Amino acid sequence: MPFDFLIQTQPGVAKELEDNYRNALLPQSLLFTGPRGSSRLTAAMDLSFLLTGEEDVRPVLRSPSVIFLPHREMSSRLNAAIKLFQKDMTDSSRLFLIETLRLVLMQYHPAFSSIVSSSNSDSFSFSSEVDSVVMAFEDSRSYSKKEVGELVEIAERCLNPKFLYQGKKGPSTPSIDQIRAIQEFFSSKGDGKVVVLEDIEDATEGARNSLLKMLEEPEENCHIILLSSNSQKMLQTILSRVRKFQFPALNGKVITELLKKRFNLYENYTSFDSFFFQKGSGEEKRKEMDENILAVTSSILSSRPLLQDREEEILSSLEKLSSWRYFREMVSISIEEGWKKGEIDSLKAKRISNALARWQENTDIYNMSQRMAFDLMLREALNV
Prior knowledge:
Blueprint: H1 11-22, E1 29-33, H2 40-51, E2 66-69, H3 75-88, H4 91-105, H5 121-135, H6 145-157, H7 161-164, H8 176-187, E3 193-198, H9 205-216, E4 222-228, H10 236-239, E5 243-246, H11 252-263, H12 272-280, H13 283-302, H14 308-321, H15 324-340, H16 346-364, H17 370-382
Parallel strand pairs: 1-4, 1-5, 2-3, 3-4
Helix pairs in contact: 3-4, 3-6, 3-12, 4-5, 8-9, 13-14, 13-15, 15-16, 16-17
């Protein structure tokens, strides 16, 4: 059935989308807005494979008609997918690993072959190799130890940041060349094409203007789905040409129930970022992260600055662990616990919370480096 995945977390949005689809009321351009981890991407994939008539391959995300350009950390999710598959080798863990790899592979769609640069040409070649291995695991059957080893080995090679982010150090927004390549993709022969773009509001002016041209003159049977955490920052000319669907934040109970049902897990998770880090990291990495969280939280609660060497050590550790969102979430939770214990008063707790929120805004909305945003947050939190 349509929206089988989305209905588990956002039943209201799933019903609205399905009703619009069945009554032919869906426009060609849509905006899914809401906080990270609210199932916007799940909805986009559900709808994409429905629009292309490929619902049967939705679980494995294999389609030449769907493109996704991510603007998110993928390493924690991929690590978690690898570890779950190695441990259980169930259909659920196999499909989760395939889905995660395909979300990465979508940015290497043949539509972008004309704009391959020297920095990512090897990644494009490698993407074909990855896809061939992944395709062999799409069927539900028993796999040999050798076959499992091959999938795990190539998935671990995908953890290279240069491959995850198309030759860049981290997530990036769609470029003007990518938008133009998408326009050519839409104008080529074939029906039912869908492109999912994340955080276009943070892209360059040239990329946004190119997108606007596509929205103004959409190709027949082609759809654009925009994912945004901050639609207020989006150009009004773009907003006026899309149908907006709001995705409320998910609470920990909903997330925990979903993960329990899918992976037979019984731990509690406050967010998907928490799940990805906890399942994708070994004991040593989790201990290292816990020490980072404790050091920063203690510094903020006591208003005592970290020694410069210790702060640099924490920053280097966070860059290596590549789990900034999880770290930020855990620091926020620890600050709240400190307030509940009476270690700080309500006014100070609120001001620290605002500083943490600005850290997220600076990185997610204004593209500030994580290091600089962390430094600004820490200075502000220590001086409230």
